[in-house]
């Protein structure tokens, strides 16, 4: 009995799909609507076809066929991905305190904030962290008398791997990890004759 209960809907589906006339297909246009042709006024044959389909398939009414295409008077709307205009306009600055990118591999924020992840995101409510590049430029240059200095970025897990910076050439040299600048000052100024 259980097998018949499962088989009955399958038979109805098989009857439904086998009754589709050969060569009938959907035709869509660029605006994703089903092709609308001029619908003919209901005639006696259309009413007879409607009643015949109701007898065959119950309350299901098959769409009208005009030539090779199904005829519909309803527009079918298909969702298309759209990026909100505020996302496109957002990104003129990388950070509130730094206007441009600071790495060769970094994409500008206007290009990075596109696509499906940012479709319905209100960017004015998202965090806008300050750029460390601008903040580190406010740190004064560390003056030393050594020729080589080491930088580990600070205490323990907040730091970075230890690097050694050569200060032989004049001028400040920055740490490649954290950007802290070091400069060597001579203990004995050179005497100029």
UniProtKB/TrEMBL annotation:
In this chain the Zinc finger CHCC-type domain maps to 146-182
User: An example of a Gene Ontology BP annotation on this entry?
Assistant: mitochondrial electron transport, NADH to ubiquinone
List, alphabetically, the GO terms of the cellular component aspect: mitochondrion
Q: Which Pfam families match?
A: zf-CHCC (PF10276)
Q: Which InterPro entries match?
A: Znf_CHCC
The cross-references to PANTHER family, in alphabetical order and at most eight, read: NADH DEHYDROGENASE [UBIQUINONE] IRON-SULFUR PROTEIN 6, MITOCHONDRIAL, NADH-UBIQUINONE OXIDOREDUCTASE 13 KD-A SUBUNIT
Top-level taxonomy: Eukaryota, Fungi, Dikarya, Basidiomycota, Ustilaginomycotina
Its protein name is: Zinc finger CHCC-type domain-containing protein
